[in-house]
Amino acid sequence: MSNGILIFAEHRDGAFNKTSFEALAAAQQLGASLNQPVVAVVLSTDAALAQEIAGYDVSKVISVESPKLNEYTPDGYTDAMEQAVRALDPQYVIMPHTYLVRDYAPKLAARFGKGLISDCVRLTAEGGSEVVFSRRIFLGKIDADVVTDGESPVFATFQSGAFRGDQAKRGAGAVMESMPVEVGEIRMQPEPAFQEVKQAVDLTKANVIVAIGRGIKGEENIAQAQALAEALGGDLAASRPICDAGWLPIDRQIGSSGQTVAPKLYIALGISGAIQHLVGMKNSDTIVAVNKDPEAPIFDIADYGIVGDIFEVMPVLTEEVKKLKG
Ligand SMILES: Cc1cc2nc3c(=O)[nH]c(=O)nc-3n(C[C@H](O)[C@H](O)[C@H](O)COP(=O)(O)OP(=O)(O)OC[C@H]3O[C@@H](n4cnc5c(N)ncnc54)[C@H](O)[C@@H]3O)c2cc1C
User: Taking the CA of residue 290 as centre, how many other CA atoms within 13 Å lie in the half-sphere pointing to its CB?
Assistant: First the structure.
């Protein structure tokens, strides 16, 4: 009988993707609710990676090994993960909803004749038995609750920010095992990874984000927001109209058609708070909104709100932050 929760921990260049720890936190929650062990799977021979994840509260870390896994390819990862899932026979396979996972996970699930419950924002395990995965539909207007027929393995991915990576529980040092796998023909030649495109930025890793909206009025004013971001050691982001106008590149866009982020601090400057924007940032730890309209919907989710003109607020905030930092 299948048992346990398998979590796929994604890495690149010797480091785990931050969302891997969020998926780990999700897997731990599920494991605790169902009283089932959590096993982490890393597709790498890098012992340091296995060791890092073994420091978390998991029962085992499996390093799935093949020379064909040195570079990511959907063929390679699907073959390797298929063998790991067949060998470990888990009830649930939990993954972060990254570009890489989006690429290969549907194919993996199809090998088992299963669907993929993708981009989940929540999970509940009522009474320790029925597991409900919630995912946003219709551009975030409705949450759909998904239950499975109970047949394992169930494949699910979690949206960045759905769980807090820093809340993944640490453990006493899990058992580490390696699992050599036979990877078949690789039909594709990998191009440089998406985030390595010049100027591309992975805002999911940022601790502080200063985001601008249409209230910034003109491209020439962005430098003021940039100064605040720099003073805070943060990254600059934007609502869609700013990127549509070409004032910032598309990889700075937050929202349903941009990135989903969950930084410690999100400062929204002149952003109204349309649902398509909110779905991308509402899981931030602390949200500060500056808007001259006291009725702006962004204030509904803000922890701190300043009703005022961003052109008055930005320089003052920047100066105060600089003073604090000495
Ligand atoms: C299919 C689809 C996908 C979409 N995807 C996204 C997405 O991924 N991300 C996204 O952001 N949007 C997305 N949108 C667009 C979204 O619906 C909103 O139009 C957009 O988020 C609004 O951006 P905004 O808040 O910057 O602009 P506005 O809604 O125009 O708001 C500007 C705000 O600035 C305030 N303001 C103006 N001047 C000042 C000032 N001097 N000081 C202080 N405040 C000021 C105003 O009071 C207002 O609240 C999408 C829309 C669709 C249809």
Answer: 23
Beta-bridge partner residues of 237: 211
The third-level CATH classification (topology) of the domain covering 5-196 is: Rossmann fold (3.40.50)
- Whole-number percent of the chain with pLDDT over 90: 78
Q: How far apart are CA 266 and CA 18, in angstroms?
A: 17
Q: φ, ψ for residue 301 (rounded to 5)? A: -110, 0
- CATH fit for domain 203-325, picks 3.40.50.1220, 1.10.10.410, 3.40.50.2300, 3.30.70.60: 3.40.50.1220
Q: Where in the chain is the domain with CATH 3.40.50.1220?
A: 203-325
pTM, 2 dp: 0.69
Name the least confident of 42-46, 125-129, 197-201: 197-201
| Residue 197: predicted pLDDT | 44
Question: How far, in Å, from the CA of 14 to the mean position of ligand 1?
Answer: 38
Residue nearest to atom 18 of ligand 1 (CA): 274
Report pLDDT for 75. 97
Q: What is the pLDDT of residues 66-75, one digit of tens each?
A: 999 999 999 9
The whole-number pLDDT of residue 199 equals 47
Q: How many CA atoms lie within 13 A of 43 on its CB side?
A: 31
255 in contact with ligand 1, CB cutoff 6 A: yes
216 contacts 269 by C-beta, under 8 angstroms: yes
Ligand 1 pocket member 277 (CB < 6 A) = yes
Site to substitute for ligand 1 among 138, 292, 298, 314, most atoms within 8 A of C-beta = 292
Q: What is the mean pLDDT of residues 314-324?
A: 96
Instruction: Say if ligand 1 is within 6 A of residue 258 CB.
Output: yes
The minimum-distance atom of ligand 1 relative to the CA of 217 is 38
For the segment 56-80, the average pLDDT, to the nearest whole number, is 97
In the chain, where does the domain assigned CATH 3.40.50.620 lie?
5-196
CB of 309 within 6 A of ligand 1: the answer is yes
